[in-house]
Design a protein that fits this description.
This protein is mainly beta. It folds into two domains: 2-96, Carboxypeptidase-like, regulatory domain (Immunoglobulin-like, Sandwich), CATH 2.60.40; 237-794, Maltoporin, Chain A. The protein is 5% helix and 59% strand. It has five helices and 44 strands. The protein has a 22-stranded antiparallel barrel. A five-stranded mixed sheet has the order 8-13-14-11-12. A hairpin with a 3-residue loop joins strand 21 (341-357) and strand 22. The protein starts with a helix and ends with a strand.
């Protein structure tokens, strides 16, 4: 670390020697007079330039005297060119006119909340993502947003990562990209490892906490994440990003774009490679991805094709760390077979149209197709032949019933469909109405292969020991609108109907036949009101969401005993304010669940653990976040979430191996805490800019105690933790570059030993007093102090 910091100091000193304040000015919106943040100002004849800050100010350093040809550009605005003589003594102000070309905002507008929408949401800009985007997955980049808790199997944020929002895991968080659903149709999860470095192709994100507004895909049962990919860049550009850091972690990204060709066409592309050894032993990651976008831009229409893909190979660290290893061997990995890996590739195709029809109507539609395929490979020691539907092997007088086996479990699937919306805004602006929806089909093959056996018997390589198929149709239609009753007072309504047909056929991995079909029709209404005045918005809403069980709930339960769908009633109320140097949000929420599905320890007829419905449970809390600009150099901010997360009553089942006959003991609990739902989550951030283009950031995160299961048993917990990260960012605009940016991210500065995720199980064994209860806890430890250093070159 000392060598890295010394090297960074030399880099800063060397780069600083290029920088010299020379020409300054301001870029404004010509119609509103508002500053344009991120506008590019380029001295074409000297190959130097600058980018405007939050006040619209720019500086170009180390210019030669004489004539300058300045080009000022900003997405969505007409480029301005102006010649001046340097040194320039006057006030240099550029006022840009909005372009007449269609913008891409309406592609995601149908599924996003606006300032007048009565729900709780957070906007994350491209600039905010870029500050932390040195190779870690999207959940890690969102770590400091309100009510978010992140985790990583490998411990370093690269590979398999996850997040919870308000205690809800990834299977309950709806994710869309350009309005197109990303959640897996069967598990409801989003596997970010299949989308490596996707943040490098993201323009904006919106997190809606709670049910939020109607969207496409899986039900929003805790939060939704709405992602818009990069919009067009009117100027040609190229960018090279390289990062390196702890655990032999590397990220290499190349981006380029044509700019606007013939005032109508643009093509953008990205190629990325990320690799890491991981904090946990052998928890390696080899991740590759690309993103290509080509678009036609007219005055009233946009037609865009996005193609992106991710390919991952990660060494498995899913088993976790036994509690006995927590103090002296935190990097322990149970798996030792050299190819105990997960291998998967996912290709996405999106054809998107957005357009205006007259002065009052806007519409967008998209066709999409996703092709996923891959497997994970496992070495299994002394497995029974019966587990693979194989007969015992007889050699002479010996009967052999088990052997060492290497298996692969495959998933090969197609997901395709269409989404569309049409938006009407009345002439007087009082009505803003959206009619939208989508229809999607998932077709997935699940099968397992034996690729090696120490004693093979009557088997061939790639024999399938299970094989089943699932087809799921998901349709929804929604009508939502806002009506301005009086200046500042808006009423909101949102009605969604969602229909699901799910069928599956074949043999499951536990050898059971899983033929069945289920149909659901859900009605999800939402109502609310907001009031805006003097930069403040007060809001309140009530929303309903219904959610079907996941694949494992169908396949693990006998088909005659499939769990009931879950239902959520959500109340949100709060205030958001933006006034001068101070901005803040404060809200209260109540999320009441009916028939929430949880792990209880209950098993099915072949010993697999199943989830069961609990009649009543809830989450309730207060969330606060804000930021204050103390001066031009100092900004402080933070967020705080306080909550109660309770199950009113449920029954736990514990395996009993104390006798020859296996049984289960049952215990009933009341008013217990929901697993993985801390009562407090908070973050604090301080930013200091001692000189122009240099930013120092300190970020702290506190997460309270979490329970590993739903019993509120203190012997089954994750300890509270408090981490601190430090970031240094420096940028200059030397000759022949639009900018050079240097970023150092030091994570977990004080070497906190913490675990944000884990699992537990208990069982009875014979003991001195008839039987003894054994509880085994497993954890996913995060790395101690670690760093990533990144260099970005923009042309």
């Amino acid at each position: 670390m000392k060598k890295v910091l010394i090297g960074l100091a030399f880099c800063l000193a060397a780069i600083s020697s290029w920088a010299q304040q020379s020409l300054s000015g301001k870029v404004l919106d010509a119609s509103t007079g508002e500053p344009l943040v991120g506008a590019s100002v380029w001295a074409e004849n000297q190959g130097k330039g600058g980018v405007t800050d939050e006040n619209g100010l720019f500086t170009i350093n180390k210019l030669n005297e004489g004539s300058l040809e300045l080009r000022v550009s900003y997405i969505g605005y007409l480029t301005v060119k102006q010649g001046i003589t340097f040194p320039y003594s006057g006030e240099l102000i550029f006022r840009l006119q909005p372009t007449e070309l269609m913008t891409e905002e309406i592609i995601v507008s149908a599924t996003r909340a606006s300032q007048s929408t009565p729900t709780t949401f957070q906007e994350i800009s491209k600039e905010e993502l870029a500050k932390r985007n040195l190779g870690q997955d999207i959940p890690m980049l969102l770590n400091f947003t309100p009510s978010v808790v992140t985790n990583s199997d490998a411990g370093a944020g690269i590979g398999y990562t996850g997040m919870r929002i308000r205690g809800s895991d990834q299977t309950r968080i709806n994710v869309t990209v350009n309005g197109i659903p990303m959640n897996d149709a069967e598990s409801h999860g989003v596997f970010w490892v299949n989308m490596p470095d996707f943040a490098s192709s993201v323009n904006t994100m919106q997190i809606q906490r709670g049910v939020g507004t109607s969207t496409n895909g899986a039900a929003t049962f805790g939060a939704s994440l709405n992602i818009q990919t990069d919009t067009r860049n009117d100027e040609a550009y190229a960018e090279i990003d390289n990062s390196a850091g702890s655990f032999n972690s590397w990220k290499h990204t190349v981006k380029a774009g044509t700019g606007l060709l013939n005032n109508r066409f643009a093509v953008d592309a990205r190629l990325s490679k990320i690799s890491s050894d991981g904090y946990v032993d052998r928890a390696t990651s080899d991740l590759r991805s690309y993103f290509v976008s080509a678009g036609f831009y007219g005055e009233d229409h946009v037609l865009k094709l996005n193609v992106f893909s991710g390919k991952e190979k990660t060494y498995q660290s899913w088993y976790g760390l036994p509690e006995s290893k927590l103090e002296d061997d935190r990097t322990f990995n149970y798996y030792t077979y050299d190819n105990e890996t997960d291998n998967y590739q996912q290709d996405h195709y999106q054809l998107i149209y957005a357009g205006k029809i007259g002065d009052n109507w806007k519409t967008n539609a998209a066709l999409h197709y996703t092709y996923g395929r891959g497997y994970y490979e496992q070495y299994r020691e002394d497995d029974d032949f019966a587990s693979y539907n194989l007969p015992d092997v007889v050699i002479g007088d010996s009967t052999i019933s088990s052997t060492d086996i290497i298996r692969r479990r495959w998933l090969d699937n197609d997901f395709y469909g269409a989404v569309a919306s049409i938006n009407y805004v009345s002439d007087n602006g009082k009505w803003d109405v959206v009619l939208g929806g989508g229809a999607n089909r998932y077709d997935g093959d699940h099968f397992g292969e034996i690729i090696w056996a120490r004693i093979a018997g009557d088997t061939d390589i790639r024999d399938r020991y299970y094989d089943n198929n699932a087809v799921k149709d998901d349709r929804n239609i929604y009508l939502k609108g806002t009506y301005e009753v009086s200046p500042g007072l808006n009423l909101f309504g949102d009605l969604q109907v969602r229909g699901i047909d799910y069928s599956f056929i074949g043999v499951n991995d536990d050898g059971r036949i899983v033929d069945g079909e289920e149909k659901y029709t859900f009605f999800n209404p939402k109502f609310g009101a907001s009031y805006e005045k003097n930069g403040r918005t007060w809001y309140a809403s009530f929303a309903v969401a219904n959610r079907e069980p996941t694949r494992s709930d169908f396949t693990d339960n006998p088909i005659t005993e499939v769990p009931r769908p879950e239902r959520l009633n959500n109340v949100e109320a709060g205030i958001r304010s933006q006034s001068g140097r101070f901005s803040y949000n404060a809200n209260f929420y109540y999320m009441g669940y009916k028939d929430q599905l949880i792990q209880t320890g209950q098993i099915n007829d072949v010993g697999a653990y199943i989830r069961e419905n609990v009649p009543d449970s809830y989450r309730a809390g207060i969330e606060l976040d804000g930021a204050y600009q103390l001066s031009d150099a100092w900004v402080i901010g933070g967020n705080l979430a306080l909550s109660q997360n309770k199950i009113k009553e449920f029954t736990e089942y514990i395996d009993d191996y104390s006798t020859d006959e296996f049984t289960q003991e049952s215990f009933t609990y009341t008013d217990t805490d929901i697993a993985f739902s801390p009562n407090i989550v908070s973050s604090a951030m301080i930013e200091f800019k001692p000189v122009q283009n240099l930013s120092l950031n300190w970020m702290s995160k506190y997460v309270g105690k979490q329970y590993l299961d739903n019993t509120s048993n203190d012997a089954r917990t994750l300890d509270a933790f408090f981490t601190n990260d430090f970031r240094v960012s420096y940028s200059v605009q030397p000759r022949y570059f639009k900018s050079i940016e240097l970023n150092l991210m030091v994570n977990n500065v004080f070497n906190e030993m913490y675990e944000p995720n884990g699992y537990t199980f208990s069982y009875y064994v014979p003991g001195e007093n008839e039987k003894e209860l054994v509880t085994e806890n497993y954890y996913y430890p995060m790395a101690g102090t670690n760093f990533m250093l990144g260099l970005s070159l923009k042309f």
